[in-house]
Amino acid sequence: MVKGVDTSEIRQWRSIVTLIVFVLANILVLWPFHMPIYIPKSLVNLICRLAVKLRVIPPSTHHAILHDNPRCSKYFVKVTFPVNFITAPLIADLFLLAISAIGRQEVYDGTIGADNIHPIDIMVFFITLAYIAISIDASVANIASAILVSSNPTNLVLAGAFDIKFIVYTANMIVPVVVTAVVLFPFLLYVIFADEKLIPSKIEMHSLPEEARAQRPVNPNIPYVQHQVEDAENAGEGMTLSLAYIMNPFLDKKGAMFGALIMSATLITLLALNAASAGSGEHPVFWVTLPAAFVMFCWDLGFGWLHRKETRQTAAHYRREMERARAERARFAAEYAETSQDKSEPDTETVTGPSSPSDQNTLHPRALSTLPSPQMEPEKLEAGRPMATEPEERSTLLSEARKGYASLERAYEWLQETFPTVMAVMAHLPFALVPFAFAMFVLVQALVSKGWVNVFAYGWYHWSKRTGTVGSIGGMGFLSCVLSNFSGTNIGTTILLSRIIQAWKEINCHDDQLISDRTYWGTIYSMAVGVNYGAFSTAFSASLAGLLWRDILARKHIHVKSHEFARVNFPIIAISMAVGCLILVGEVYIVRDNSPYSSFEKACPNN
């Protein structure tokens, strides 16, 4: 084995446990589940009482958890704990801390930063830029996002780890990405989706009724506007309403123009400052995006405040419409159930005896002496119980206890009605990315400190020695694409592979000669191609965008199965990676040579 980087620590039991925990955490990210936990009823009661006092939940929820919940036994309450991309890496970090496999230094390096990778800077940059993008409703595809460093966190990690200027990164990635898109389009059109059922040769546009076309478009971020569409879709009545929001959309032209100006100025400033600086980490990128996001935030606040009267009137109108529609559906359902019961009564009159406990929780249409009204408490409407069936004392107690919670509800609704854009953007910001990314950074740092990254780097060292530039580009492209599906999304893959390449550089510092310019940069940019293209490969969890896409489709009642997703995407990702890596090989052979990628003093400052 080549002398240099120490790997002796992998023989310790904590190092072995660290590797096992890392693998298990990534498996749980790939296949999430809900774990049942049985909590003593007295403890649940205490927590719920505290939550009610703090106005976190209403009293009705407290009562439902302890009495109406079918999973509640005499002494225990069954709750389900989600084990997913947020909780699994976090639990893994806590476990490693508990057994002293990692300590303060690993947590610090995984959050503040080490070796030119600064997680906290990346997260602030990503969230602030995401606010501007969501505010103007702008988004891009994964292939196109490979061109710009600012497009996603994986590119930020990669550029920071190897001190790549933004403009240099774009110059090296634009040719492989554009050629991939050009080659992929006819392949998708004439091979993958050649069936007339998938992409018809002629599309007949739906037409809105005259009444719908004449209506003024309404901002969907206003409370109750979008709820009306969702309620109608769930009831099978939402075709016209959904089409209206697509074919007659609300357009905030002033806000869009201002947001586009802010976004353009931000990206241009980022490129200019990064190109002018001596190193990529000289000035944190969020120094540009944070003020820009604050300016956009102030614009959204001011726009909402100036139009608050109109917005509140619209919200009140749609609230009344939604309540009327729900009352109508409840009335029709009650009438239908009563008619059905009347027809079946002659066959069931002779049945007598005490009712079972399950019967007491069953809605009988005859108990509905009055129609459900909008003024009825929502939780009672959902449970199907009219107010008259509840004891008067408990109703009084609930109404008094609900006052505090209702005040929070009213405050939140007031914010939605006054600042609809701000509240909508806040609800869609990818905050879940923050704990996931930090936890993955810490996990990879644990592998670094326990010597496993050095072991992987030795394996890559021997592979690159044997296969040269072409093998390095193909091998790294394959690894980065595949690991995106099995290593905590493409973010976790980028973190891990960046550390491996950094260790690979260190190993070569103790070798007879440094890595060639072609092999070094070909490896780095093939990783960039792999983690960007791998985001849409064979698993939803290959990227957070894939998970979000699946959730959005599910809310629209479109359910995509995992095996179907993999079956359709496999030939697409195979063609994309083959074309991207092939073009990258040609590019590095044209613009680079076999000289060392850097001087020995710069490449190996510690030797």
UniProtKB/TrEMBL annotation:
Which intervals carry biased composition (Polar residues)? 349-363
Where it sits in the cell: the answer is: Cell membrane
Its domain of life?
Answer: Eukaryota
Alphabetically sorted, this entry's keywords are: Cell membrane, Membrane, Transmembrane, Transmembrane helix
Entry GO terms, CC: plasma membrane
TM ranges? 12-33, 83-103, 124-149, 169-193, 255-273, 285-306, 429-448, 524-549, 570-591
Question: According to its record, how does it sit in the membrane?
Answer: Multi-pass membrane protein
Q: Where is this region: Disordered?
A: 333-398
Task: Specify the protein name.
Answer: Citrate transporter-like domain-containing protein
Q: In which organism is this protein found?
A: Fusarium oxysporum f. sp. cubense (strain race 1) (Panama disease fungus)
